[in-house]
Amino acid sequence: MQPDIPYRQTHQQAPDEWKLEQGLEPARLGIRNQSSIQINTEPHRLNPSDHEELKGPDIPEDPDLDVQDERPGWKGYVEWEDYPEKKAKAHQRFSRFTFPPPPEFQLESLPATNPVLEGKRWKLWHKAIGGVLDQVPQISWETVLKEKHPEMLHLLEFPYNGEAPKSLLIKDYIMPNELHFVRNHGGIPDIEASAYDIRLDGLVNDPKTLTLADLQNESLFPRVSKLVTIQCSGTRRFEQIVEYPGEGDEMINAPWAEGAIGTAKWTGVSLKKIIKYCGGLKDGAKHIELYGADTYFKGGQCMNYVVSVPWSKVKANEVMLAWEMNDKPLPKIHGFPLRAVVFGYIGARSLGIQIQEMPVSSAIMSPWNKEVVVHDGEIEVKGWAYSGGGRWPERVEISSDGGYVWYAVPIENLSPKHKFAWRTFTGKVPCDHEGWTELVVRCWDNSLNTQPMEVRHSWNWSLHVTSSCHRVKIYSVNAKREATRKRLREFDEHGQGFTPITRPTDFVPMSLEEYEKEVANVEPRDVDD
User: Which DSSP symbol is given to 137?
Assistant: First the structure.
């Protein structure tokens, strides 16, 4: 007889191959080529480069590129748009170095850290340019720690991207400044109010430079206040990432959950009034360009962050230059001493296919995904609803069975209506069944727009504008049932927690006598012919 061969010699499968087969480590998967062409099927690896390797503390100075503060009282501000030669030198300096690739955060698990992602490339880009930009990442992080709530979820350390946790997001429908989300594209400049001014030129008939004191002079410009919700177009991006990953730049596509949205009372002056003070626009002018004070990097180029809004939006008095946020001076992290607020547009306009107005959307803040909910036949659901472009949530509906049966949230359980602000809600939905179920929320706005049912219906490569019905899987435990109450008591009596629900019980749930009695009441396994 042939002797037994040890198992370890007969089983040659790699120890982690099961993970690859099941898609648990997709970043390591190559291409399965079933085409007639020859291509490289291996996953991408960073290739060696002839360029000089960038090492954080060892970057040599460049005498031809002297990046300093442009103006007194403006720390961290570098003007790029008016100096094309300086931009060209910065690009040449970039070309000398090899920078690390973006971290993989979609096809691999997110690190259990806060901040979740570091933004190492962006830090090194600032260090490579040098001068005043060298310390911008550290100064910006110190500002975050000083001005934001200690429980903020830091998605990206630099440029800073952060949102409030669900437990605090809708505690008040007007959000405290320290909890309002931040989506930065660069550092946080430190500008003194007394040194600040704004330049209006281009296609205005009478170009002017106005100080902050000029803008706050009510004999020139009437002061206005407005309750406005600002939302990042990446809100709820994580739902797309989980199902169908897309473009993976950690700054462009940070893994936002439901907290990249915030409502505040903004005080300032209408941009329309300021342009009128400058003699209006010249014929043919269609857009207003807004220049930020932060340095932005794209495609190896240095620039100031610049966006535009249509003149029609400005003419409607829906663009404000604000200096107060919730009756307080703007925090540095939100643009002190002055920022633009564009009503009903995505946050990137407040400073391919352009994104302006956000579609109708809503999200569940409580319960949380995969949470065990013990209830008495009804589940309480809390969340927010919003629609961009001057539309507002008119009706919010909740389902406890994955979207088959819907229950409207009573009007009295919705926060007040505002043209450019969200509405928070609390509603109870019947849930008789037990086990895994799916809570779903959808919103109808005043134009009768509603949300796609599935995330796939609005998926896009850039992972923007996640507006599908928000779905939260929970484990339902209906304590109105006597058998359920009995089982919960057994857990308490034996000192075992009910969660995690996947853990087997440490106690025998049924005695031998109970088991025999149960079996005696069961029909035979076989049937008679």
Answer: H
Q: How many residues does the chain have?
A: 529
Which region holds residue 76: left if phi is over 0, alpha if psi is between -120 and 50, else beta? left
pLDDT in tens, 68-91: 998 999 999 999 988 999 999 999
Which two structure tokens, joined as six digits, stand for 8? 């370890």
Q: What is the pLDDT of residues 294-346, one digit of tens each?
A: 999 988 889 998 888 999 999 999 999 999 999 999 999 999 999 999 998 75
265 class by beta-carbon count within 10 Å (0-12 exposed, 13-18 middle, 19+ buried): middle
Over the stretch 88-110, which tens digit does the pLDDT of each residue have?
999 988 888 888 888 999 998 88
Residue in the structure block whose two tokens are 């990446």: 234
**Contact (CB, 8 A) for 433 and 344:** no
For residue 398, give every residue at least 6 positions away whose Cβ sits within 8 Å of its Cβ, in sequence order, or none: 381, 406, 407, 409, 427, 429, 439, 440, 441
How much is the mean pLDDT over the chain?
89
465: left (phi over 0), alpha (psi -120 to 50) or beta: left
Q: Per the omega criterion (within 30 degrees of 0), is the bond before 367 cis?
A: yes
Residue type, 67: V
242 within 8 A of 370, measured Cβ to Cβ: no
The 3-state secondary structure of 268-281 reads EEEHHHHHHHCCCE
Could you tell me the strand order of the sheet in which 182-183 lies?
153-156, 161-163, 182-183
* Domains of the chain as residue ranges with CATH: 53-349 (3.90.420.10), 361-478 (2.60.40.650), 482-520 (no CATH)
